[in-house]
Amino acid sequence: MSVAAVLDKALDGERIGDADAVALLESRDLVAVGRAANELRNRRADPARITFIVDRNLNYTNICYTDCDFCAFYRSPGDTREGYLLPKPIIFKKIEETLALGGTGLLMQGGHHPDLGIDYYEDLFRSIKARYPIHLHALSPPEVQHIARRSKLTIPATLSRLRDAGLDSLPGGGGEILVDRVRQIVSPKKTKSDEWLNVMRHAHRLGMSTTATMMYGHVETIPERVEHMRRIRELQDETRGFRAFISWTFQNDGNRLADEVPRERMPTSFDYLLTQAVSRIYLDNVDHIQSSWVTQGMKIGQVALGFGADDMGSVMIEENVVSAAGTTHRTSTDELVHLIKSVGKVPVQRDTLYRDVKVWN
What we know:
The structure is a single chain. With 361 residues, the protein is α/β, with parallel strands linked by helices. It has one domain (3-359): Aldolase class I (TIM Barrel). 44% of the residues lie in helices and 14% in strands. The protein has 15 helices and ten strands. It has helices at residues 3-11, 18-27, 30-44, 88-100, 118-131, 141-151, 155-165, 180-186, 193-205, 222-239, 269-282, 293-296, 298-303, 321-324, 333-342; strands at residues 49-53, 55-59, 105-109, 135-138, 210-216, 242-249, 288-290, 311-314, 346-350, 356-359. It has a four-stranded mixed beta sheet. Strands 2-3-4 form a three-stranded parallel beta sheet, with helices on one face. Helix 7 (155-165) packs across helix 9 (193-205).
């Protein structure tokens, strides 16, 4: 099927298939695909508004035994020089700083620390919730699986206990590419595709909303990129629990996977915009698509708003994982408001669940 026929199909409200999505990605027809993605974005979200959140990405520990090839952030268990586990007073101070800056959420993720079972997380979450009115968007599926195994619990029991202790929603970290051939290369000790999806399925059944992510541009093929999106779309058909999809490109500094990906094969800004636009067209059951300025920089993050994204993601008061791989972009509420206004849109600060916090008319 031609690109024009695929786009007409999508614009007529018909679901596109995997072969259609592959055709769009392989076409390199960025302008036509982007225009269609923007039209579909305008139908699903208010065309006049762009949302963002003020929150903090708090990495409570960098100790991890899964040693994924793409990660430059982790330190091995026993690393007493650079390994850390943040004490409660430091975590509390960071939350207080976040609230003082108008933040509403805490995105908390860390390594697979061999000594941390569910008791640690229950105590930490209860301590946070007793002190602060903040949304806990924490623990990616691989972390949940690690906690369950470490504590000899099922996934549903682990999630139920974490939710009761104060966990509000799950981030989509650790998704990478949901194809086991790829995962065997980039993260062989981490959750398999079905396991990642199973954690999300059980979180959705417990009434917890989550996000979905894709980290691409390394060893996967274009059909495998689409397979990843299909697995997300199928689970969303089943549970309706994903509120947003965020994709970003592999960052190749300071990690072993860089040896597998020559610089000339690294994804470009063109690749990023095309992939994001196709995700908006393909994921017809996911409400929000986030622009990833954290990996692309503010200019491309802004351009992405015309290629299917309705959300700028987070001001991200703190970020350690992407920056450990050599990519460091920073922003502020004022800068995001300015960037959104400069493309003729109304900036809206939202909370984690996409409820309005502040509107700049």
